[in-house]
Amino acid sequence: MVLNWNLFLESTNLSEPSVLKDKFIIYIFSLSLAPLVISGLVAFFGLPIGAGNLILRFDNLHNEVTWAGSVSTFYGILGVVLVISAINFALAKHIYEKEKFISYAFAVGTGMITLLFLIAAGSIAFIN
Predict the structure, then answer these.
(1) Does residue 11 lie in a domain region?
(2) DSSP letters of 16-29?
(3) CB distance 69 to 52 below 8 Å
């Protein structure tokens, strides 16, 4: 029995370009994971453990803490950003064949969100 690979490729849509073959989207999503890893390392090495609440926002005008939370709150926010990144990648992968521009927008948006979270993680570690 001889397999006809052309029929197999046509039935599974492997012959069409996919998001995994687009180097720009893969590069941007890969680069957006780097700030998440760095944020986790900043939190692990920069935040105090067992010291009670963290200062998440400090108001310089009134010289008071306006929002405090525990270390688990910070890691919970890190987890939410990771889930948002995974959802954005899944959406970009799903709509890539129909609208490539929106897939690029998801990739760049994810990179910006993770970069902003890295800045927030650095400032929280600096305050505490």
Answers:
(1) no
(2) S--GGG-HHHHHHH
(3) no
